Amino acid sequence: MRSSACKQSGFTLVEILVVMAIVGLIAASVVFTVPSMTRDETTPQTAAATLKAQLQWARERAMIEQRPLGLLLQAEGYQFLRWQQTEEGWRWQAVTEKGLAAQDYRDNLSLEWRIDEPPFIAQEKQLEDTLFSPSDDNEDEEQPIPQLLILPTGELSQFSIQFAAPFDAEPSAWLIADSAWTTRIADNDDTE
């Protein structure tokens, strides 16, 4: 009689499923125990860090898609826009991707900004204002126009955005673009 003694190599399906179940339980417990920040808990520093990360993501998206993106700034928040073709022609449309979600800081933070436009953009705007009066527009609804453009090359205009808490509850944070490629977060003492 021959005995067929086979050595088993690798893992059985049951062992793999048990390990996957344990890893799944650990991951689920971590998700439920890590506190998520609500809008009321957002500080100027975390808001500036969030926008910095979103701008980096937007730069990458603009380069991959070879299509400009824009940032529409408002006193109570901001929203990313994408230049895309619609039935009415090319228009700025709200970006719905999770990584570029609109931020609403109403009653929690306020935003103030300064954007340094390149000279050719300022000249183009001046020429456009001279040639076209507001009555020349045939559009029924106002199209949102972003203040900050993210070009398909990934470049940005120089800008500074201040995130301030109401009643000076916390120190302000600034997101500053010193050049077309670098952004940094600064406090009130380091804004220059």
From TrEMBL:
<keyword id="KW-0488">Methylation</keyword>
<comment type="similarity">
    <text>Belongs to the GSP H family.</text>
</comment>
<dbReference type="GO" id="GO:0005886">
    <property type="term" value="C:plasma membrane"/>
</dbReference>
<keyword id="KW-0997">Cell inner membrane</keyword>
<dbReference type="InterPro" id="IPR012902">
    <property type="entry name" value="N_methyl_site"/>
</dbReference>
<dbReference type="GO" id="GO:0015628">
    <property type="term" value="P:protein secretion by the type II secretion system"/>
</dbReference>
<protein>
    <recommendedName>
        <fullName>Type II secretion system protein H</fullName>
    </recommendedName>
</protein>
<feature type="transmembrane region" description="Helical">
    <location>
        <begin position="12"/>
        <end position="34"/>
    </location>
</feature>
<keyword id="KW-1003">Cell membrane</keyword>
<dbReference type="InterPro" id="IPR002416">
    <property type="entry name" value="T2SS_protein-GspH"/>
</dbReference>
<feature type="domain" description="General secretion pathway GspH">
    <location>
        <begin position="47"/>
        <end position="167"/>
    </location>
</feature>
<keyword id="KW-0812">Transmembrane</keyword>
<dbReference type="InterPro" id="IPR049875">
    <property type="entry name" value="TypeII_GspH"/>
</dbReference>
<keyword id="KW-0472">Membrane</keyword>
<keyword id="KW-1133">Transmembrane helix</keyword>
<dbReference type="GO" id="GO:0015627">
    <property type="term" value="C:type II protein secretion system complex"/>
</dbReference>
<dbReference type="Pfam" id="PF07963">
    <property type="entry name" value="N_methyl"/>
</dbReference>
<dbReference type="InterPro" id="IPR045584">
    <property type="entry name" value="Pilin-like"/>
</dbReference>
<dbReference type="InterPro" id="IPR022346">
    <property type="entry name" value="T2SS_GspH"/>
</dbReference>
<dbReference type="Pfam" id="PF12019">
    <property type="entry name" value="GspH"/>
</dbReference>
